[in-house]
Write a structure and sequence with these properties.
153 residues, mainly alpha, three-stranded antiparallel beta sheet, 3 strands
Length: 153
């Protein structure tokens, strides 16, 4: 089913587009702000000389987290007037967090390559869900507003 969905729904192209949107600013920041020497090809950063590479593929796109955020906010109660600005804002935060994640992984690859897989799998990947949880808490506690009905006795 997954292969069918990826091939015939355009989801794969969207995933690749989103991966590219994460790759481009990450590569620019790593090269021009941090100053690492690297080459790029498609959505892969090759660190020079022979320091390794990071491929930003479809699973790194953040698209799955966008959908999780969207469905969480659609299903959770709250005024649609506020949801119409809070959902896109949350997606922007997720996207920026993903760019930050690739930048941090680049630094880890150069300075602590032995720690890369652990930090990728057990720290930075779950960090997505910490960010989503904190945005949800902010929604519940501050943004959506609450209507408390007092019962007259």
């Amino acid at each position: 089913l997954k292969g069918f969905l990826l091939e015939y729904t355009g989801f794969h192209e969207l995933e690749l587009f989103m991966a590219n949107q994460v790759f481009m600013p990450s590569a620019w920041f790593v090269k021009h702000v941090i100053g690492y020497e690297l080459n790029t090809y498609e959505t892969t950063l090759y660190f020079l000389p022979d320091k390794g590479y990071i491929e930003v593929n479809g699973s790194c796109s953040g698209l799955k987290q966008f959908y999780q955020w969207l469905f969480l906010m659609i299903l959770f109660p709250g005024p649609w007037k506020k949801k119409l600005w809070y959902i896109p804002l949350g997606m922007l935060v997720i996207h920026l967090e993903n760019i930050f994640r690739i930048i941090v992984l680049s630094v880890i690859l150069i300075h602590w390559p032995d720690q890369w897989h652990f930090l990728h799998d057990w720290v930075l990947r779950p960090f997505f869900y910490v960010v989503i949880f904190l945005m949800w808490v902010l929604w519940v506690e501050k943004v959506r507003g609450s209507k408390v009905h007092k019962v007259k006795s």
